[in-house]
Amino acid sequence: MGTYAEGSYFFYAPNKVLPIVFGILVLISGLWHIYQNQKYGYWRATFLLPWAAAVFFAGFAMREWGAYEYDNLPVFISTTVLILAAPPVYAAAEYVILGRLLYYIPWLSPIHPGRVVSTFIGLGAVTEALTANGAAYFANSDNTIEQRKTGLNIIRSALLLQALIELGFFALVATFYARCRRANVVTPSIRTVTYLLFGTSLLILGRCIFRTVEVFENEIDQKPGSITTNEWSFWVFEVGMMIICTYWLNWHHPGQYLPNNFKLYLSYRDHKTEVEGPGWVDKRNFILTIFDPFDIVGLVQQNDKKCRFWEDESVPESMPESVPEGTSRAPDPKYDIYSSDAEAPQKMV
Predict the structure, then answer these.
(1) What radius of gyration do the chain's Cα atoms show?
(2) Nearest in space to 205 (alpha carbons), one of 161, 154, 157, 173
(3) What stretches of the chain adopt beta strand conformation (E)?
(4) Which of 101, 177, 179, 227 is the most exposed place for a label (fewest CB within 10 A)?
């Protein structure tokens, strides 16, 4: 157990150096995300990454303030809420990236790519709201014991929900990757983006498990548990995992591997040519798409084929041997999306 600091809402006297160090690291990552989004024209798919870094940076700034005024309740509440709120935003960015990957190979997607974004981000928004409200109630020692217990239970529910969402997300990525392997379309680009999603999802899930153990070992009217009273666990399992996550997303930004045009997809016929289609439009009622994202009703009624636009494509007689890998992609109105000298796959409109 750490050493108690008189009057500290953190229990201990927080470290004064680490918030600056990690604040600078997350600021660099956030600025790097902005640069990459601009370079690759990828704001539509990864706009949440700079936002997540900004929330995290604000949390570290408030924690640095709290390191000098650890008896300041508003500062303690602010840093608690902000640091708890940042990881779900990174998780939401993952959902959008997966949606982009599914748009690229729609004929292997187990779910409408747009429904991935709307369903998972909708659930993530619920998690974010629960986390923020629960943290505000729990961290405020001026509230009654019952109010703080309610806040703690809300945080517990939010963390369990986030863990379940991440497990579902991981399972969806695994299902899609297994389909790609069976179809023999696992190019280095697809593998890199898939491994990126696997890795960052595990990091977010690991952080979620850490927070879940922390809140379940604590009770309002009892002494705080060992995780809460030892600051090192916070910097390792909360901050360390998320710093790795954000820099992994920098290092393998999806804009380097997938086109920024969501209508470009890998040919259903030859698995090599990039084709521009109409986009995967789901004409069902919006409420139905929320409750039946896999279109099970359409499968039963055999109405799902009306969205399978890729089955109508035609393929030219001459095909490139493979989709070139390791190239950087940047926005271009003609979809000449490769910036290297490698031969680009043939585009069909």
Answers:
(1) 23
(2) 161
(3) 264-266, 274-276, 347-348
(4) 179
